[in-house]
Amino acid sequence: MLHFALTPVARLNPVAVGGVTVSNVTLHNIGEIHRLDVRIGDTVSVYRSGDVIPKVEKVWPEFRPNDTQEVHLPEQCPVCESPVVMPEGEALARCSGGLYCAAQRIEAIRHFVSRKAMDIEGLGDRWVESLLHLDLLQDVADIYHLHEHREKMLTIEKMGEKSVQNLFDAIENSKKTTLAAFIYALGIRGVGETTARMLANTFQTLDALRVADIEALKKTPDVGDITAEWIVDFFQAPHNLEVLDRLLAAGIHWDAPVAPTRQPFNGESWVITGTLSQMGRDEATQMLQALGARVSGSVSSKTKCLVAGEKAGSKLEKAEKLGIHVMNESEFIQLMQDYGQLEA
Question: Which of 15, 126, 216, 318 fits a disulfide with 212 by CB distance 3.0 to 4.6 angstroms?
Answer without folding.
Answer: 216
